[in-house]
Amino acid sequence: MDCYEYMRIPAKYIPANIMEQYNLAPLVHNGHVPTEIRKGMYGLPQAGILAYNRLVKHLALSDYTPVKHTPGLFRHATRPVAFSLVVDDFAIKYVDRIHTEHHLSTLRSLYNITTDWTASTYCGITLKWDYTARTVDLSMPGYIEKALETCLDERPERPQHAQHAWTAPSYGSKVQLIPPADDSEPLDAGGLTRIQQIIGTLLFYGRAIDNTLLVALGTLLAA
Prior knowledge:
By secondary structure, this protein is α+β, with helices and mostly antiparallel strands.
């Protein structure tokens, strides 16, 4: 880090062998060991950006650079390789395996990595590739079933097959009608938290798999 951070660690939480190995006893003050943080660590708010900046600098040495207007997407200056980065997962698109091996060797020089040449999952999404038809099917098996178990206390007796309320058009009407005013009571803090949990659960699925959910989620967000 350019600017070091500082924290106190309660000495009672540090194992005795660690205290002895690093001779920490003389550093104890008011029951705590003062600590200087020079690199990223778990729980540090800026840990993510520090790790990302370190990766970008490392990739640049091998001519991999971020695409200007698409966060998380990288390209090589000359090789037919592009990849997306989400946290610590890479999805690599390449023309010849020799080119992606170059990318993997670049990563291995800094990290311990594992590879899945079938590319069967990414970001929790199951990918089914058809290289003959040049298509890919995306799915998240069991996601909605699990979401219903989490979000619903009980299933409604009358099933709702549409994702969003729909008002049938009145063709030929000369008067533009507006929906009736919503005079229902505002949600309390618990109800608001519940709605936020439901939206958070379904928003990723709606963006990645089934975008027909987005209209209903957008309406809930705006309510």
